[in-house]
Structure formats: C-alpha cells, structure tokens
Amino acid sequence: MDSTLQAPTPVGIDPDSSEQLMDEYQASQESVRPSRTKIVATVGPSCGEVDQLTQLVRSGASVFRLNMAHGEPETQQIFVDRIRQVGEDLDVPLAILVDLAGPKFRLGELAGESIFCSRGEEFFFVKGESKAPNELQSSYEPLVDELSVGDLVMLADGTVSMLVEEASADRVRMRVQQQGTIRSKQGINLPGVRLSVPAISVEDHKHAIWAAKTGADFVSLSFVRSPDEVRTLKDIIRSSGSRASVIAKIEKSEALERLDEIVSEADGVMVARGDLGVEIDVAQMPLAQKRIIRKCQQYHKPVIIATQMLDSMHESQRPTRAETTDVANAILDGADACMLSGETAIGKHPRLAVEMMNRIALATEESIAGQPLRESGSKRADGLHAVTSAVVHGAGTMAHVLEAKLVVVASHSGRTALALSQQRSFVPTVGVSTFETTLRQMCLLWGVTPLRNAPATDVEQLIRHTDSWACRQGLATRGDRIVIVGGSHLTAGSNDSKMASGVHDIVIVHEVECLGSCEI
User: Are 335 and 304 in contact (CB under 8 A)?
Assistant: First the structure.
C-alpha cells in the first residue's frame, strides 16, 4: 500500500495494538458535538498547557475553573492567559470561573504526619503549642473559644468524627465517634457550629480584586451563609470595574436555611457536594441537591453540580457505573452544568474525563428530548422585563410548534439568553451580543451556543449572517425556519441605549435561503 495513504502511528501507541486505541486517538483529534449541559473543567498541572486546554475544549468543556486554594494570582494568571489564547486560536468564547477558597479550617502539623484515631479515644484541640500526640491545633485560632459541648468535629473529609465533651478556656476535649486516620493539614468541618469567621477573608478579597481586573467571567464564593456575603462580593467586583457574575457555593447547613435569599441574590449557584456532604447528614445529600436545583429553577438561576462526579477517573480511563448514573441524574434533575475537579486538574486522563462527561450528557439529553417546555419560574429574580419574558415564552413556543432549526437571541446582558435556556427547549439556541463578556457568560447556560462576530444591532445583517452560518454548519437547509429574538434596536439600527434597556419585543421567523453559502 502507498505509505502516503497510511495514517501516522501516534506516539505511545503500538502499531499492533487494538483498533479501539487508534479510534480513540483519531477521535481526540477532532471536536466532538458538545452537549447542551455545560462542562466546567478545573485547571491544574494535568491540563494547564495550551495544547491540553485545546483538547478539553474540543472534547466539550466551555468553562474553566481556577481554584484559588491551590495557587496564587501570579500562578493562575498563566492559566488565564493560556485560556484566552485558546479561545482566540479556536475563535470561540471560553469562560473563566475564579473559585475563592473561603474560610477553610485545617489541622496543624501532626507528629509523624498522621495519627490513627480509635473509637472512644480522647483528643484535644488546644491553644498554643501541642505537647502530646493527642493534642491538635487548628489554622483557625478562635476554634477553641467557639466550640461547645455537644458539637461534632469532622476530620479527613468526614471519615473521622469526634464529639466535644468538655470545653475550657484553653482547650476542648473530644471523644472519637467514628475512627480513622487523620493527617497534617487536612480540612476540619464543623457541622452546625456558628462561627464568627467572615466568608470573605483578606486573602479572598485580594483574589476577588485580581479576578475582576484580569477579566474573569464568574467568581464563586465558598461557604456562603447569608445573602449579605453575596452582596459584599458583588460590591468588591463591581468597584473593580468588572461585570463578572457571582456564583454562591452551597456547602453549609446555614446556606440551606436561607436558600431562597441566597439564590435570589446570586447570579448562579454551585452545589459543592464535598463539604456539604460533611456539613449535613450524607444520607440527606441527594435530597439537598434536588432541592437546590428546584430552587434555582424557580428563580431562573443557572446551577452547577460539583465534586466527585467522575472521581474514579483520577486514575481510571473509565468511570464507575454509579458515577455515570450520578451525572445523568444531575442532568435529569435540571443541572445547567456539571463540574470536573481533580479529574482534570491532577488526574491522569483529563481529556477522557471531559469526553466521558460529554458522552453521558448527550445520552441523557436524548432521553428527555421532546418534552414540553419548562414553565417560567414562580419566583424569577433574573431582572427580566415583563415584555421580554412574554416574548421569550412566545418565541420558545413558536420554535417548538414550527419545528425551527435554530433560535437566535441578540442579548446585551445575557438575561434573555438565560430565559430561553431555562425553558429547556431542544431547538438549538444561539446567543449573539456586542459584548465579549456576555458571550463568555453564555458558556454556562444550558443549550446556548455563543456566537462571535455576529451583527447584534441590525436585523437584516443578523438574518443574513445567521442564515449563512447555519447552512455552513449543517444546522439548516433551504426552507428551514429560524426564530430570531431581539429588541426594537434591531429594526432601528444600532442603539446602545435601547439595547441596554433589556427590553426584547421582537420575534422574527425567517425561512432559510442559504445566503452566501453552498446549501448543505
């Protein structure tokens, strides 16, 4: 056979290996069809290079998380620059989520680095220096003062628990309820304990300002307990000249007690199941997740499900059956996005993890295609004008009834695109805007594809552009219908004040002509 017709053997693959490996390699060189459910990938040593980030985008990721608990701004800025470079190289909007560490409490140094805690054994939290192997210290200095008899202390991600039996001025005595091994610097969880520590530390404040100035699209706040903390972070970001959205991470029992207020105030929500599953009874975790998702639907806020979604893929090339079921159930419950943490940041197979998440999402979405449009949230707090709300509802219904191939929305702030996303229409939605920030924030919206360089202020130009683009992409052919949603600025020419007013009062049904392109 002519050697020029043979595909080159990828580095690291034996020419005699199975065809499956070759198929996987070839598939990795091409972009996959992205799911409607968005994928958030955490950036770290395993995926921080430009070519690795490019692979993740081609595999289905559209939002990249920077965990400030594992890197200072100087280090994270390198990743910001690379993500922006990938977005330019691929000519697609990519969003960056800066995740503030929050007040995470940790154990001090232990003798021998680890201690096995036997059930019934006594341990102490002490002020000052430890003088015995069973005396523990905390990075949170007021801890001894704020613990009371009957409080539960959870260590090692909740695998070890101790009950406070006595509290004095300089120490608290605890007895092990659930035995296990603890290690230096591990996290401490205090379910139900009311602490004085602020949600936004001095370090978090500094990182929030950096996130705003570097152009982050989302900033998430850890260990939220009240809506006031969300408002404080918003003030910090706005005073730094940023339009970044604030994501409230639900991982404290206090947050569940004030869930309505927090969801209403935040721009989006993350169900941070790692700490939440320790702060509350782990048996209640699935119900809490469903409750948070429903609340976000009522308020029209996007929701991300996070932590241990494909945890076994830190090492394995395939997830467990339980993990695939977990991802599918999150999507069936109504999640807008699913997040990968260590799977992409430090795992051995970051690309495969994103590909698998995308595959599960696509398969799950197929099962719910054709369902009736979701009704408008009963407590919506997205700032959408009443006229726009009605127009969006009508546009979604029209697209469904007319079997349109595409819905296009011209949006200044992204709120109209969010409203269309919340309907859960399976007619593909394309978002256009004059603002790159708005396009990047659309990357978190279920079912919305942000499109760069589309004329968002002139209806005739937008129709021609969309017509040609849809035909080139194979999304429509001559005679198909496209529904376009916009404000009166579209027919009046460019008018920033009208566009900024947020009123969308026009719906146009266009029959595709494949203008300026070859019919697919």
Answer: yes
